[in-house]
């Protein structure tokens, strides 16, 4: 009898052991953000209206029609006068940059933000186990991750990754890489370094599809410290709940809407196609189809299902008008039932407006993205962290709140993820010294006031004045 009891106990204990091991491993697979540091370049790199005029005047390939196009683009962009450009622009060498310009631009950001982040978090460079660097348009040898490892004298067994060509959605891809590495290794510290190099990628031609990028992209960067060490959970700021990546690279139209290419004169630039809004919408809808069931409560999903069934029934009976909007966006899903804050990529005013309409967001929801676009411009993959920092500086992020990040990138990609705020947050980060000035009374920039006279000029008699 005792032998029978023992034989019965062993498999029961084994089942409990497997259950405990599964729970313990699941806990170690969590992904937390311990801290992050957005880069704030020095004031001597600030791009004002006067400086923009000087840069445009230096480009001898532009004519009156291009000036009118640029004026319209910058006035409607949502960008203000306090964004930042690389030093090569202020040296007047944007037409003939050198590799060292791109490297020094990155070094200035790397040494500032990584140093501040590690100091603030109380972490030594030698404690970093994983390093992911994403800079889309600068690939060096040795790599940028190697430059960081050399500068901070990190360990020889560090796992490093360099991402190029990922575009504005690279931050999410970096988080996804770390999340997957965390599944195999316990108690690790990871560092994400995200930025974009503009020094060697300023377009000096007159192709409108490539000039537009000059109006939107600005300098920036962010360093993010993550961990799966449950012992550090009490120090964490955010916990990753889910992440969804959508890639439409197989679609030829989507693939070609954002490309680095040469114009007819051989000048390198970044081409933005007129099909970009269409490609972004397709990717956004497909991404929402996957992430929506993961982030919304069951009651909202049931309500949505009931509404959809009723609409489908009405269409079959012929009571719905032909061509009525379909899909998850237009069907009336209440995303606020599962999300408290929306961290939207600052790809431009049209991008922010489009997401706002699609998700039925208020101006309060869109304010962080609008203010970030106005203050810092489109800083590519790192823009999301400036938006997040704005929310934190405004003391909006409270324990238990959910933050949905949405980003778009060349390829074409749409990536999104949901973070849970682990504790009340109120650090100002890059907004610390000026958050009280936002939002301003108006987001109108002074470009039209200063250069509006161009609209009345005639191409047959136009001559650019000495002072503009």
From TrEMBL:
Q: Which catalytic residues are annotated?
A: 168, 247, 341, 345, 374, 378
Q: What name does UniProt use for this protein?
A: 3-ketoacyl-CoA synthase
Which pathway is this protein assigned to? Lipid metabolism; fatty acid biosynthesis
Tell me the organism.
Hibiscus trionum (Flower of an hour)
Q: Indicate the segments forming the FAE domain, all copies.
A: 26-312
Regarding protein family, the annotation reads: Belongs to the thiolase-like superfamily. Chalcone/stilbene synthases family.
Tell me the domain of life. Eukaryota
* Molecular function via GO: fatty acid elongase activity
